[in-house]
Amino acid sequence: MKLEIRNLSFSYDGRRKVLDGLSLSADEGQFICLLGRNGAGKTTLFRTLLGTLRKKEGEILTDGDDLSKLSARERAGRIAYIPQESSQSFSYTVLNAVLMGTTNRISTLASPGEKEVNTAIEALRRFGIEALKDRKTDSLSGGERQLVLCARAVSQNARILLFDEPTSSLDWANQIRTLSLIRSLTREGYLAIVSTHNVQDALNYADRIVLLDRGRIVSDSTPAELAENSALADFYSLPLTIKRVDDTYVCIPEL
To answer: What's the pLDDT tens digit per position in 83-93?
Structure first.
């Protein structure tokens, strides 16, 4: 599924633009990392794509269709959101939490059936947490809850996945597992857009790295291109060196 964002602008107060003429085109099968300081516009961009904020100017298209003209159910069938892990007010079993991702494909008054249950279990298996399916979500660690959120999004069957700092609360092993799984999803044809503050993860997993500053894209490059220029150092106002060690990029601040 192709995503096109054309000249997108948004302001909360009618004066300062949080998104300012942002344009981005992305195709299925891509892993795109968004890097930017807090307040750069990453969360606002995600909320605009999801329809929880109404765009002020510009267009957002998926496969040529204007997202603003789609129903909430139709939009959910195209874009799924994986938020940062947080505590929950309600407790569900892990299986039921993941089943919520399938509701956009059944009628309003219907309950999930065998097909939806199988979809949810397969999503749990994909993230290595099938054994947790009968556990209550409020009994899980923060990292485990993050993986449940990822599984729920995959069960939604949308082809565009928005990840908001998906590894921020995970231990090292689960960080690697999650990033590798996101990359495997893109190889199956998903488009993954990942907001992160981890420059080294972006360099080693992304196909493209988008640098966002005050609602504008200041760079849209491959990791190899960023490794060969000073864009990251200029962006963060931090002298650094990016080295290639075997197949891994290592970002070294020069402090």
So the answer is: 876 555 568 89
